[in-house]
Amino acid sequence: MCDVDTVYIKVDSVNIFLYIATMSSKKKKKTYHHGDLRNSLLVAAEKELRQKGTDISLREVAKVAGVSHTAPYRHFKDKTALLQALAAIGYQRLAEGVRAAKDQHADEPIEAMLGAARAYVELAVNNPEMTQLMFGGVLDQEVIIEEDLGVCSGDAFQALLEVVDLGLEHDVYQSDNRMEIALANWSMVHGLSMLITCGQLSGEAETDESVQGLTRMVGEMLMTGLKKKT
Amino acid sequence: MCDVDTVYIKVDSVNIFLYIATMSSKKKKKTYHHGDLRNSLLVAAEKELRQKGTDISLREVAKVAGVSHTAPYRHFKDKTALLQALAAIGYQRLAEGVRAAKDQHADEPIEAMLGAARAYVELAVNNPEMTQLMFGGVLDQEVIIEEDLGVCSGDAFQALLEVVDLGLEHDVYQSDNRMEIALANWSMVHGLSMLITCGQLSGEAETDESVQGLTRMVGEMLMTGLKKKT
DNA sequence: ACCTGAACACCGTTCAAGT
DNA sequence: ACCTGAACACCGTTCAAGT
């Protein structure tokens, strides 16, 4: 009743509470989770996602993170909220990948777009479960619980628009409608990604090289067109 | 003990058993499910899919079909098998839609392809949950339990190839690689479908008209190319 | 042959309680 | 403030049993 752990109640200070808890955890069995549990949960969730696919259990995530199965509810409203927060991280990486490709080809707008396409497909193929989580209808994009999801997914689209604008500035496109150009590129690249990650192209997209080849191929086809010139 | 229902055991004939069961069902409460339960389960499953989305419960499907929660196991190995059989129906409709569009434009290969694209996107947008089931990673395409799935999904791709061949016969494409042309078209159309059905384009794809407009737009962009001609 | 009902291990979520 | 443990209603699947 009068041991170290009870002191913090009377002191009523978060910092001191944490300090004592940290100290005592070195002696006793670590029962409380210290530090950023929210983040630990997301890390655990991604590990589970990669291993078991899109249908992961919140209880298992908690177990992997080393807390009780009710602890996640301190940081996320429900299971969907955790998955949305995880998807938000996926969109963040997507935006980063696209911007990195753009910066590498600042003077060659077409190569910048093809590079962005390569980054998009590569990320999707290397993280198929994450891709399915983001775009597979596991979570309703209509009902956004974690605001991060809306922000990050919007920013990813923004990154794509920046690559389009690069081309418009250099006057390389026939059309001057940035939305249309963006949507055509996005659809093409997204479609290829989804077809590969859901296993429809299992025959022709097995190695990294073949995936890159396919990406370049469909990307150039969109740029030059399929129809014969008259 | 000695009423009508027990006769069939001694007779040991399926037909007679079924006949007696049918007769008795008119008098008593219908406890057994007569006729094609397999089909009834698929109908119930699609109803549930449309209502509750991709995460449906096998028990609920059984309840909707009017049988006990273990009855489905007489017709499907497990829940995944039922979902795969349902997805197979989706691929079947896709193949039909594409072929119908092709037959409508037998002399205009480009219009045939654009029509097929329209059919594909339309079907996806009108059945978003089915689309997510087919392509969203809910079921592993790697592990096919219901053989129908493999057959029907292969046939849907076959239908697309037929539309490509129409164009090759009329010599309208720059490339002569049917696989490449097919993949470019498929990626484009599939990407647009998935972006709409997962809610990413909620702003610009609300009405049937706007969806058709977007489909035609990206389709024509692929045909003519984005880049300025030099 | 076809279906039922009890049983098991799991799940998401809530809530009173503990430190 | 942060986490736990019991409890509840649900789920997929198995199996002995019924007609």
Assembly state of the chains shown: homodimer
Largest pleated sheet of chain A: none
* Chain pair with largest interface: A-B, 56 and 56 residues
Helix content of chain A: 55-70%
Structural shape of chain A: elongated
Q: Mean pLDDT of chain A, nearest integer?
A: 86
Rg on CA atoms of chain A, Å: 23 Å
Q: Determine the structural class of chain A based on helices, strands and strand pairing.
A: mainly alpha
Number of DSSP E strands of chain A: 0
pLDDT under 50 segments of chain A (min length 5)?
1-31
Q: What is the overall number of helices of chain A?
A: 10
Which range does the strand content of chain A fall in? under 5%
- String of helices and strands of chain A: HHHHHHHHHH
Intertermini distance of chain A: 90 Å
Tell me briefly what this model is.
Chain A has 10 helices and no strands.
Structural commentary:
The structure is a homodimer of 230-residue chains. By secondary structure, chain A is mainly alpha-helical. Chain A has 10 helices and no strands. In chain A, helix 5 packs antiparallel against helix 6 and helix 6 packs antiparallel against helix 8. The first copy, chain A, binds a DNA duplex (19 and 19 nucleotides) through helix 2 and helix 4.
Core attributes:
homodimer, mainly alpha, 10 helices, 0% strand, DNA-binding
Produce the secondary structure layout.
Two copies of one chain form a homodimer.
Chain A: H1 7-11, H2 14-27, H3 37-52, H4 58-65, H5 79-104, H6 109-126, H7 128-135, H8 147-169, H9 178-197, H10 208-224
Chain A binds a DNA duplex (19 and 19 nucleotides) through helix 2 and helix 4.
